[in-house]
Amino acid sequence: MDLRAICSSSLPKGKALTKTLRMMKLTAIILLSTCLAATANGYSQKVTLSERNAPLDVIFKKIKAQCGYTFVYRDEWFKHAKKVTLDMKDVLVTDALDACFKGQPFYYAIVERTVVIYKKDPLSSPAPSNLQSAAGPPPVDIKGKVVNEKGEPMEGVTVTVKGTFNSTSARANGEFTLTSVNENAVLVFSYIGYKTQEVPIKGKTKLTVTLVLNHNDITMSEVVITAIGVTQLKDQTGTTSSAIKKEDIAGSGEAGLINSLAGKASGVRIGKSNGDPGSGSVIQIRGSNTIQGASQPLIILDGIPVSNDNLGNINVSQQSRLDDINPNDIESVQVLKGASAAALWGSRAANGVIVIVTKNGAYEKKPVVQYSFTQSFDKINVFTPLQNKYGQGAGGVWNRTAQGSWGDKIVNRTGGDDVMNQTGAYFISDVTGSKIYPVTTKNATQTFLKENYDKVFQTGKYREHDVSIGGGGKKVSYFFSYGNLSQEGIIRNSDYTRHTVRLNTKVQITDKFSWNNKFTYTNTKSNRIAQAGENTNGILLGLLRNAPDFDITEYIGTYVAGGTAYQGRQRMYRRQIGENQSPDYNNPLWTIYQQRSGTEVNRFIMAPELQLEPLQWLNVIVRGGFDYYGDDRSTFFPTGSSSSLRSLGRWEKDDITSREMNLDAIVKASRDISKDISLTATVGVNYNDRYRSTNSNVLTSFAVNAALPSTILNPDPAASTWDRTITDIRSNRGYGILAFNLFDQLFVSASGTFEAASTIKGTFFYPSADIAWQFSDLIKSNILSFGKFRASYGKVGIQPAPYKFHTLVTTGFSSFGGAYLISGESGNPGLQPEVKTEYEIGTDLRLFNNRIQLGVTYYNSETKDVLFSVKANPSSGYNFNYKNAAVIANKGIEIDLTAKVLKIKDFQLSINSNFNANKNKVVDIAGTETVDIGGTSKAVKGYPMSAFYLPGTLQSSDGKLTLDANGFPQVDTKSRVLGDPNPDWRGGVGMTFNWKKLDFSFLFEHSHGGDYINRTRITLYGFGTHADVGNEITLTEALKNVNGVTFAAGTTLRGNIANFGGGNVLLDEAWYNGRGGGLGFNKVNDLYVEDATWTKLRNVTLGYTFSNIQLTKKILFNSIKLSVTGRDLILWTKLKGVDPETNNYGVSNAFGMNYFNNPGTKSVLLNLQVTF
């Protein structure tokens, strides 16, 4: 923090700036001081003074000599000030200052080791009320205490007798004392960031005042946390960032930290994988910047980088490691979006930086205990509509082994019992013990859509307990918390638990030396069910393809044929007596209850920090970081599971160890170059080491049919494979920052980072610069309270994947005598990091006495040397070359608006909103036209990232459909771009309403435009189970189907009517099972690309707070708050049966497609918070 004494009484001749500008300089310093007041600890220091008729500045020098305080003031103020006589021994600094300023026209505030003094203008106040006649009432002494809305003491609050110069400041415990006060006086309590309040004494001779201060309309000068973990006034920065309040995070209703950020910051997209408990989510800031490189932003927790890994596999969506952090431990979240703000992290910052600060205790503060309990009830937010009119079969005829449900009309059956063949093979259910024979004639009219649905899904719920205690003494502060989350998913038998322990401590060893340490431990366990959308073991794949007239209850049992019993067989709609060991698809209950995917993660994060202030203008920080987790995973497929890979049994065991060590040494110096120009110089060095080890074991072809994993499933070495992968990335950075403050109006900063890493050769330089001009200092306006223009420029990067310099070899076999296999990808010794260059310009405005705050930003970035694997020339002997070969561009606009709409007595109403429009483009891909990202998503030259690239309709040069002889569109087997999932714009709008102790808030999030392709719907059309293909129509004219068969007018049949430009045609089973639907990509896919626009009621909360609840004589609750929250309760979208936020590809750059994704959720939460 740069706080300096102001000693000059006037500006030199020739300067155009006015006295008002100089006062703005002082005001800015006061704002900086007050915003950081929470860290003040010097009130406990004592001084000894013995002076007679001494000027104030002499007293200040004495205090500075004894305690090291810096005083901020203007010399000319004290020319006519009263001289002071003091004789004090071992008194608090605040007591000494109170004595100095008694009867003086000055105020003061203490922050850390700085005393800021400012002058009260007597012309703006009525005549001092202490100038009364001798006959007036005698003065009294006033003692009181100031607390915030949580009942916590507030230090540094200015307490003034209205209309006089008699004032003081609240001490660290919130207490204050005023002497010689008129019994009819009014006390004025003021503190920047809070509303000024006036309290009449009303004749009391001995008064104790406890106040709860209300927040001002908008905090006048926010403090931001930079990329290296130091604070800076937002009004003095030329970069843009978004702050997310801890109350908004804790009140979001989300179990994980990532999803709690959704809709709260412009330019930030949070993409959920699905509604599985603990499943991962993607964070994207200002669009995609890379193709195959790291796409997530860097996470800085308490000054150190930590992992947000999402190491998935093909069977289950895994957790994002950021969700290991308890959201209730968060003090603040800052999103640094631009390259300039993030440049100090070099090649790890191209995707932005999220800076997270956890809670601390406070010096000289009694312990504050808080307890919170949350109970959530979760439901599926949207489900694919299915038909229940037609049974299993094809061509209108029932068939028990048919893949689709194009069979007979169910209501036309005779009813009664089905006819069965009881002379041959049969099935004995393990569920009910029933004996089931193959059906030969289907008579029953019962359908099971709801029953099957209820057997798979349930009301999910989670219970969360959090307890914390924070406080401190004169030299030590502490914050301890424990959190326990236990979640049951909406899919039966899925669960997730999280235990977190945190201990944050601060020790003021000496006046110049302090030690901080933040430690957290997390244990998570989960079973997310061994399945994924697009494999044949998938839950929704098996459920949605299931025939509506097949009951999935009897899913496991014994198949008996020819006198032989085959135990542990699976029964599903195409194998109704378990006659095949490898069914086409899993019965969803088999997936839920027989397959397993368990994980257990133990994680430790520690961030120790030493701070040294050898001189008043010099600060030294040495900060360490250690982030370790062990992730033990086990996935089990018993014999009889779907697919040849798993039908004989499969057990996968992964042990993942990840460790990141970080060390920073930072030196910061702040000096005045002249009375109007100051300089802050920062230099630092960083060492970082990231290590990961993965041990993988796979056991297949079980010798015995086991329902649980065991090492004796198959002792044959040929049935077992083992491999180990190790990556170790090291980097060193050296960086420097020069920041100039010119006239407290113009702020210029430049930085440079040199970086060397094990993944690249040589050293790379990442520069940045930003400028902020507070132009409102030159404007007098009743409308404009504050105005700033800002601009910035910076370069950041993405490192190449490790071990790409050389061509690698892998072992072909793990047993003795195994050979080695040369990698199909050639090494490249000339690799460089991807480099993103970005500039941004914008403005920050506050209007109408700070009631409205507006921020507007335009940014433009280009990422060059983007890395990916390019197909190699076959003559080279390799399949791929990994090289720098692409360019990606992003540009857009961001708008953030906050407004206090109404504030009348106990009633407050405020709104906040954000808007972002980003345009992304793959400018160039050298050596190819497309690069695969995942599934249908590709990077295509000239198009946005993640474009849908697959076959569509055959079209003429003017874009018209080329129809066949029967009037149907044809398939163009050549793939092309069919859609873009990136939205045109995104935004959020929220409102907060407070009336006395009642509060109400809501947040809407909207995503406008972009495309979505629902391949679940396309596939189910072919299977005949989707509701769209369950229609029965009577033709009013003769129509042809895709095969050229004509159906006469008056015919009643199953299907739909469409016109593709050549007249009406019949869409029936032939169409939906061919080019119009079903399995595979060789379809008219562009006809199914839909508008992805959606709006969600992200959360809505109603709460009431009870204050000062006396439970017993010894137990007093400061507050009890009860609230109810709805999360994602309403979804508006044109898409049918799908939540467009869920992503088939999990945490990746590919999105915008559904293929039997697990559904999302909506929730109602009840919360109890107790503070005592």
From TrEMBL:
Pfam families: CarbopepD_reg_2 (PF13715), Plug (PF07715). Keywords: Cell outer membrane, Membrane, Transmembrane, Transmembrane beta strand, Transport. GO terms for cellular component: cell outer membrane. It is found in: Cell outer membrane. It comes from the Bacteria. It is a multi-pass membrane protein. Residues 236-353 form the TonB-dependent receptor plug domain. InterPro entries: Beta-barrel_TonB_sf, CarboxyPept-like_regulatory, Plug_dom, Plug_dom_sf, TonB-dep_OMP_SusC/RagA, TonB-dep_OMP_SusC/RagA_CS, TonB-dep_rcpt-like. Belongs to the TonB-dependent receptor family. This is SusC/RagA family TonB-linked outer membrane protein. It comes from Niastella caeni.
